[in-house]
What does this fold into?
Amino acid sequence: MTVIRTEELTRSFARKGTRRHPLARPEQLTAVDGLTLTVEAGESVGYIGANGAGKSTTIKMLVGILVPTSGTVRTCGLEPVRQRRTLAGRVGVVFGQRSALWWDLPLRDSFELLTAIHRIPAAEASARTADLVERLEMGPTLGTPVRQLSLGQRMRGEVAAALLHRPELVILDEPTIGLDVLSKQRLREFLIEQRLEHGTTLLLTTHDMGDVARLCSRVVLVDHGEMAYDGTLDGLAAQVGAERVLVVDLAEPHPDLTGLPGSRHLGSEGEGLRQRLAFDATATTAAALLAQVSARVAVVDLAIEEPDVEDVVRRVYLAQQRDG
Amino acid sequence: MASAPDPAGPRPTAWAAYRAVLGSRVRARASYRIPFITDSLGAGLVGIVEFVETFLVFSATGAIGGFDVHAILLVFALAEIGFCLGDLAFGHLDSLPEYLRAGTLDIFYLRPQPLLAQLVTSDISLRRLARAAVGVVILGVALWTNAIMWTIPRAAMLVLALVCSPLIYAALFVCAAGVQFFTVNAPEMPNAFTYGGRYAAVTPASVWPGPLRIFFGFVAPVAFTGYLPALVILDLPGVGVLAQPLAWGLPLAVVSVWGIALLLWRTGVRHYQGGGG
Amino acid sequence: MRSTLAVYLRLVRVGLRTQSAYPLAAVAGVAANAMFGLIKASILLAAVASAGGALRGYDAATMAAYVWVSQALIGLVQPWGGSQIAASTRSGQVAVELVRPLDVQGAHIADDVGRGLFGVLPRTLPTLAVGALTTGLFLPHALAPYVLGVGSALLAVVLSSACRYALGVLGFWVVDARGLQTLYMVVGSFLAGLFVPLPLMPHWLQALAAATPFPSLLMAPVDVISGRVTGPAAYAVLAHQGLWLIAAWALGAVLTRAGARRLEIQGG
It folds into this structure.
């Protein structure tokens, strides 16, 4: 079943302050430009692009907030703007920058209210809420007014709020922005669990390639409103050579760790105490590389740097220029 | 031939900051002409409606508290002009709670100027000039329709009132801002001082019950912005403690209300710093 | 399946609870309402006295009732309140509202009505008490004015929310929505009879006011509660308010439908 289908979807905005006189047409800015995209049920899509690439505009058209300038869009087989309220019952959305919770009320009340809004029968509502509360470890914060929650706590609340009514399609717009490593990890694990259990379709926009790598089987990259890539993450990595970087802190100074298969030595600090190794995620794994390093010298600490989305976008752009 | 300027330039004065803000407001306004015009019309409308409200009550009865329609015009005009000018320069202290919530105030703490000076110079609402203009027109009508026997003291009182009234309202805005450090979530609290003061000031003090006479005569001394100067100019006796000679205490009223204002402001700032924001 | 009405009634309760998170705001509201009430009472009671004890159908006690009932209703009716829909559109928060299976207009008005109704206990009653203790005021001795008065006040609260919602949506088409807001607040509160009771105005001004919904916001419930209008005339006042409510709601609905195409949310 097709969950999302857009054809030549386009949206332009009037640029504010570009109207020379009251009757003049203001300049147009095209945020989404002829996007054709199909997402099947159960897929998990990372929708990435630089700031202003048109990601949020696309999402708003998918859920019926914005009217397309031209082209067509069907979400869950519905026409989003005309059937917005029906669609709202079948989609769950988290806008990372905004809150769907009631600021002054305890978290628990927001959940109760949302189950009422979605008209979930009482028994089912309490079971579903209890399940989400347990999995997202929100028990201790249930009685706290939302405005007093930490960002990580609140974001778990937002995700739960979007999933209460068991939507077929979950759209997450920058769900991990500003979260610490632990909160990110917990949220990702939860989303993987939900997908495994319920077969939910997931569309995710993010700046964090880590999110995409853990959660998405497919990547769609937009640039200036147009689709620049659609395929697997590995394929994208192969196309742009996006490498991850393993940073190791060693027990003792060591000469540069060169010649390890699948990796490239980027540099050393502190007379070789800290070394940076770039590796191609399609050629080797962080674990394999770490094992090779450990065979040579004792490792005390490590970190992995993910390629930034902006970086990937830039590389795609460069690669296309080179090919063209 | 002018001498070459000192390359470092003279140290900018506090006024330079104010001039810069004023300049930027004027430029910003020039580029958004439609909102500025409607804003000004709106502000002028506020002045007109408030005048009509006062006028209707007096015209329905003839005279209230020893003031007829003509005499009340003078009270209204003096108080209104004073309020508008005070509001023009200090009125945006009203938005202190928003600054507190947005953390803008913390940024002000990092700069070398006094906090109050920075807040005052952070914005100027030029549209309020339109409302002052309504007051000026009414003042003209009032001076025309009242048979005033002009003497030097009466003319002096008119000038003194026009200079001092804005200072009294400015102080009330500072008082209100000081209180707002304690009542961030209660934005209506300061209205009782500022807008309430203005509302009281455009009515003759002779109608106020005793406690209000003390409060608006000596604590938040808005009686000095309209009623008392009008007593001198129109040569009316006044009522109880608020008698004609008291009007000459206007400069003292300014000093005392500013004393209260700075005290409340300091208390508020201390409270904010003590609470750790 | 819960009924649609139940969902919106829950939203009313949420608005009420949201406002109850700021108890100090209510105290401040009473302080401001009482201060303005004292001044308003001084000038209007002096006017009645100088007119020989009777002015356009008001005596001292009924004028005091006008003053304090109107002051007490401010916190409920919120004649100066902005519109949440405008703020919500500016901030982009409306996006969240649009992904709920709710009618945006209904949800907004429900929340707003709830916020207003919170004021009954901490604002309306204390303000009336201040009036009773200072100037005293006339209160009807029969039950009917209170029953009808509650109905009229409720209609006024919902009508006020519906009007401000429509105004907020109208802002989508206007170059300067803030100017519109100022116009509404200034002219609206004047024609609602907030500072000067309508009978003190010249006939042409009363006729002008009657052609707007504003008297239904304040003067109507004040007249009914203070017993100035009773019997069949009181029912007529309520019916009149009801008609304005239907008109304002319909206007809001039409504007929302037309405005959906223009909702250009921040952060595309």
Summary: The longest helix of chain B spans residues 33-61. Confidence is low (pLDDT under 50) at residues 1-5 of chain B.
